[in-house]
Amino acid sequence: MPEAKGIQKIVDGLERDLSGPLAETCLLLVNRLSQMPADQLRRLTFPLLGGLAEREPQDALLQSAVTALTTVRHNPLVLYFIFLDVEDDREIDVSAAEVMQSLKDGLFIHPRTGIPVAEFKALLQPAYRISPEFSSVLLDARN
Amino acid sequence: MSVAQAMTALRNRMPWPVAQKVLKRIGVRRSRGWDNTLKAVNDAGVRPDREDELIRALQEHLLCGEKLVQFYQLDDEMMNALRYSLLLMELPKNIFSAIYPMQVDADEVRAGDHTRPVLAEVARLPFGSALIFASIRHTTSRESLGLGDLPAEAAEALSGYAEVIGVRRQKLEAIDVLWIPDEGNTIELRVDFPWGMLQEQGKVALANLAAACIATLGRDYLSNQVNLFPAIQSLYDKEGDGSMVELGFMVSGSAQKLEKSRRDGHCCRTEAYHVGGKQALAMPIQPYRVSVIWPEADGENESRAEVSLNGTSLMTADPEAFLGSMTVRNCADLTEYQYLRERMLEHLAV
Fold first, then answer.
1. 3-state class of B231 per DSSP?
2. Could you give the ipTM of this predicted complex?
3. Helix H segments across chain A?
4. Residue among B274, B265, B259 at smallest CA distance from B292
5. Mutation target among A32, A43, A119, A142 for the B interface, most CBs of B within 10 A
6. Out of A24, A32, B80, B216, which could bridge A52 as a Cys pair, Cβ 3.0 to 4.6 Å?
7. Is B250 helix (H, G, I), strand (E, B) or coil?
8. Is A40 on the interface with B (CB under 8 A)?
9. Do residue A39 and residue B253 have CB atoms under 8 angstroms apart?
10. How far is CA B120 from the centre of its chain?
11. Do the chains contact at A45 and B256, CB–CB below 8 Å?
């Protein structure tokens, strides 16, 4: 079945490149995520991913597994950052590349106002969404 | 302290719905609104046997009404030392301690000096003791203005706006408290937090109070602040424990939700739209802001005292999220406050 192939391709890659508890945690996450609707996997936080992997959000293995799932070879997940627009009490998505550049430069431009933000690190948190490829796999599976 | 002074102080501090309940309990005749009630009391007076109760109501409200609160956990040695230090505490002479619980006159407030909290009273009370600090606080609040209240020309000029917000800067006498319970090792800082006061100003007030406590006690008892963020999830999970009248949460699809049900006090946790929406989700919701009332907190009448834990949505993505303070509103007296405190401590597991 095509859907099995799509997910199986990700699973095969993880089993080939990883081993031990790291591989087990990655496979558990992929397995659980693959059972969920793609449109509900846009803001995956460490507390949520920890719940799926049955690990504490601060757990080092969980963090390693999530990082592994965002690498080029295995990319079911995409890292991005949430910026809290305090005045508007809303979140704005910021790409990981932009945040990395801001950390390097020590300068972060407010996405809405265009003005530099002081103490910007406190207003950013990492989050994950499923990759377009993984999303396609899930959609194919449902079709 | 005269009845008129107590009534004026209450009028300056107490929300009208709370005042109605308190005045009814004491047996003071209420009229429509504060102004008419003050006039009625000034005209007819208060039965002598009710005067002490009125003043006690003010004293209790000074300690627990409209507060921004932080909890601190102490070990046994520190707790014993703190309780012992209370026995030795000498009340300094200052403009506040000289007249407490009366408030300083309007000229002193307008002058705007005495901005640092100073000790005004040391009180032994039901459930614990309080170091009571007073200061003149400069506040900024944002208030909605009705176009009908503005001069015709201004109202016409602003007629295109759905809402007009005014920024009010004022000075007021603030009463802040270090609460030391008779039981347990969790102490509290409480600062006055009237409706509309900005959160950032509340945080500054808490920092100033902490500094005043350390200076007064000669020791830092405030090194271990309690993180309130875990209580948000705990409160949400415990259906039937109070009524959740406000709930802000994130869902994994990235939508941000804010639900309110203060009008009838119905619990957001069990409200049909919320329950139905949650059933459609594959992942748990992540609450970050809750307000809870416990109608039974008063013991006799229905309580509208409300605890609010106002985290940010960003905290739901932070594995080590820390929320330092909570708001307590509509609390009528120490008995009600104690009930809220006990519920919160249970959820904080301290």
1. helix
2. 0.90
3. 2-17, 20-33, 46-53, 60-68, 96-105, 132-142
4. B265
5. A43
6. A32
7. strand
8. yes
9. yes
10. 19
11. no
How many angstroms separate the CA of residue B317 from the nearest CA in chain A?
A: 5
Q: What is the pLDDT along chain B (350 residues), one digit of tens a residue?
A: 778 888 888 988 899 999 999 999 888 888 888 888 888 888 877 777 788 898 999 999 999 999 999 999 999 999 999 999 999 999 999 999 999 988 888 787 877 788 899 999 999 998 999 999 999 998 887 778 888 878 888 888 888 888 888 888 888 899 999 999 999 999 999 999 998 888 899 999 999 999 999 999 999 999 999 999 999 999 999 999 999 999 999 999 999 999 999 887 789 999 999 999 999 999 999 999 999 999 888 877 788 899 999 999 999 999 999 999 999 999 999 999 999 999 999 999 88
Angle between helices A20-33 and A46-53 (to 10 degrees): 100
Q: In this structure, which amino acid lies at residue B65?
A: G
**Would you call B314 an interface residue with chain A, using a CB distance cutoff of 8 Å?**
yes
pTM of the predicted structure, to 2 decimals: 0.90
Tokens of B228: 């309130």
- Measure the CA–CA gap between B307 and B325, rounded to whole angstroms: 11
Say yes or no for a CB contact (<8 Å) between A51 and B312.
no
Residue B285: name the closest of B325, B232, B323 by CA.
B232
Contact (CB, 8 A) for B202 and B68:
yes
Task: Indicate yes or no: CB of B283 within 8 angstroms of CB of A46.
Answer: no
Q: Name the strands in the sheet holding A90-95, side by side, starting at the edge strand that comes first in the sequence.
A: A90-95, A77-85, A124-130
The H or E element containing residue B329 is strand B326-329
Question: Are residues B312 and B288 in contact, defined by beta-carbon separation less than 8 angstroms?
Answer: yes
